[in-house]
Design goal:
Pathway: Porphyrin-containing compound metabolism; protoporphyrin-IX biosynthesis; protoporphyrin-IX from protoporphyrinogen-IX: step 1/1
Number of helices: 6
Organism: Crocosphaera subtropica (strain ATCC 51142 / BH68) (Cyanothece sp. (strain ATCC 51142))
Distance between the termini: 91 Å
Strand content: under 5%
Subcellular location: Cell membrane
Shape: elongated
Function: Catalyzes the oxidation of protoporphyrinogen IX to protoporphyrin IX.
Number of strands: 0
Structural class: mainly alpha
Keywords: Cell membrane, Heme, Iron, Membrane, Metal-binding, Oxidoreductase, Transmembrane, Transmembrane helix
């Protein structure tokens, strides 16, 4: 009898732990991705600040450097740490899940996301030193990478082994094409606006 009560109590605690880990895992994901999306957007503005005249260029770059550091160190990296730590906690409540094939694939994409995170940190330091040659348009393309990873990771988490690969592949291809097209259209719109401005000032 006592053994049965102990098992029931342990099971309830395990369920509660799972819910807590899950809740903070989702919170960490939201914070992490929000930081990643905004960080690379700041890179876009930082790179385009080079097109400004002095003293505006120096003022803008100095401001973006401060914003990037704070965002990366205070929001984005803590979000990543919480996400990973809570994921470890989730696995500890259900260790058999490590045998699942879908989880291995998901972890591979998470590894790519971690690589992206630290690569952004490297770019941030290069921008600070004036060693980064990326253009604003290139950063806009880079900013779409976590979107693709987020879609894949979420689909794997929801569908698990039942993920329809054909439909998912076409979805990802369509998403990439749509993002590439939007970047090109924006670049064209921006170029036409600059040409119009230049012709009006001549």
């Amino acid at each position: 009898m006592f053994q049965g009560l102990f098992k029931e109590k342990y099971f309830r605690q395990l369920i509660m732990a799972y819910y807590w880990f899950k809740a903070f895992h989702l919170i960490g994901i939201v914070v992490w991705f929000a930081g990643l999306f905004y960080l690379v957007r700041l890179f876009v503005y930082h790179a385009e600040a080079s097109e400004k005249k002095e003293p505006d260029q120096s003022i803008l770059k100095a401001q973006y450097e401060i914003m990037e550091k704070r965002l990366y160190n205070i929001i984005t990296t803590p979000g990543m740490i919480v996400t990973v730590a809570m994921a470890v906690g989730l696995v500890s409540t259900e260790p058999d899940i490590l045998k699942s094939g879908w989880l291995h694939i998901k972890l591979a994409f998470v590894a790519l996301l971690l690589g992206y995170h630290f690569y952004c940190g490297r770019i941030m330091r290069q921008l600070e030193k004036g060693e980064c040659q990326w253009t604003g348009q290139q950063f806009r393309a880079l900013n779409e990478a976590p979107t693709v990873l987020l879609v894949i990771i979420v689909l794997l988490a929801i569908f698990k082994n039942n993920l329809p690969l054909d439909l998912t592949t076409w979805l990802i291809v369509a998403l990439v094409i749509a993002m590439a097209a939007s970047i090109q259209l924006y670049a064209k719109k921006r170029r036409l606006a600059q040409e119009k401005l230049s012709s009006s000032t001549d």
